[in-house]
Amino acid sequence: MPVSVGAALGEAPFTPGVSEAVDGRVARYEAAKVAQGYRSYTLELNNGTVVQEFVNSNGRVFALRWSGPDLPDMGMLLGSYLPVFKASVQAARQAGKRGGPVVVQAGGLVLVSTGAMQAFSGYAYLEPLLPAGLDVQTLLK
Amino acid sequence: MKRFFLMLVSALCLQGCGGGAANNTPVATGAGADTLISGNASVQSQLDVGFNSSPWAGEVNVVDLVVDSGPDGPGVNRLYTSVKICQPGSTAVCKTIDHVLVDTGSVGLRLLASAVPVNLQLSAAGNLGDKVLLGCANFLDGSFAWGPLVVADVKLAGLTASNTTVQLVGHSDYRHVQGQCSSGDPIVTATDLGANGILGVGLSQQDCGSACDPQSRRSARNGRYFSCVDAACTQVAGSALAVDKQLQQVVARFPTDNNGLAIQMDGVAYPGVPVARGKMIFGLGTRSNNQYAGAQVLATTNQGFLNGALSSTNGVSLGNFSSTFLDTGSNGIYFDFNLPSCVYPYDSGFYCPLADMAFNVVLSGVRSGQVGASFTVSNAAQLLSRGNFALPTLGGSISMVGGLDLGLPFFFGRTVVLGIDGMSATGVGAGTVNGPFYAL
Questions:
Q1: E strands along B68-205, which residues?
Q2: Do B74 and A25 touch (CB under 8 A)?
Q3: CB contact under 8 A, B183 and A97
Q4: Is residue A3, in this structure, part of any structural domain at all?
Q5: Is residue A63 predicted with pLDDT exceeding 80?
Q6: Is residue A2 part of a domain?
């Protein structure tokens, strides 16, 4: 039952002490790096995986990427977009796709989740929230 | 009167509780290793009788592998074997479970609780008096394996991994999920998983290692292991778990033939077949049937990666893939390349070139030595539309810089040797070699 707790796509970024349900899973938090049209924050999860959030000028997370030994909780990262992710993987499963990387492009959500045990990586972004003129593919490489 | 009643109750309890008697119905789901956890299978599932309860008649260290339609649900290129689990020390109270996925990309045995008979009762893992432990494993598609850890003898061919931690997945008494095993889709049925379990035979000795060991700084919040907080297990908390209590590389726990394994698959011709077969051979250089003197050893990084130098068949270099891995749990060969993607209904990241694309790859590891190999990517729509389940030339994108996932199609017509981390072997190439490594 995913709860909107901050740090998810489309929402306000993670705030230590405020994003309650997520706090227990975040071991380390690095404050914003400011760039043109966006800010980025780095979270290190308890399982060792690092998540980088990108926030637009309206204070909403428009993109994030992760890398590390275990998968992050998709509910925590996708918030209200979790059902879009789930519907997409269900359709892929029906088409015979199992056990490989996950690519989602639906409902404004673009997501790639890939890797193997001990080395997972991926990214997700919301097309409607991208800052104007930003090359998101280069940003997330 | 009252005092007599209390004495009577405690006398009954001494006889019935924690004794492991076959008639005992486990009540407390959260209490510790004196808890017996039963399987969840439908009433039809019974303990092994007849052929399955006889001693192993084949080669001591060899099991059959099969690629077929699986127990339920759509899916191709799924590699299966049968696994026998028994109450520790028993050869009679056992169940042979078919269609367990053989996965070189993970470590540990996970079985659907629904595939284990109700009258197979196994002790909860952990120390006496501790609460029941549970495991959490996440998969890329958001599904997760959640369930209690038990101790069983795991038998493959004529070899036994005694007192081995096994995860029972989707157990109906342990549905209160937590942490990372909460937002996704829980694996409960064979349709969810496309199998009755997963036998992870990857290069590591444990599922998590030092990151989950109590000695490690953040170990209780590792996201992989939890323990029940209350006796009814309505609440769980993150838990550290010593490396020898984690899910184990089962092969490493055999008394012999335990330093590695080989996967030997029959060749599969285009456009695929309904059923493909192979063998999994345990031990490296321990018997006459597991000598690989002609194989080239490829030592992997700690994460299990090799380097793959890709080229076209006429020698044009196509790039270096520094995160190359061999994974029977992947159902295709996945790498990022300028090949056309398929359109609906096969548009889930598979490649659909108009004609077959052949590639050469030179594989090398972190020590000297290299092996040349080749593979082909065909039009996935053509492969997937014929009703076959073993597809030799299925490929797709991976969206991972430097990633080259040599999945099950790479294993067809090959023998792939896996050397387990922390073990050494003779009989693979020349001299003595230490894991982790692949050898081709």
A1: 79-86, 94-103, 107-112, 121-123, 133-138, 143-156, 159-169, 185-186, 197-201
A2: no
A3: no
A4: no
A5: yes
A6: no
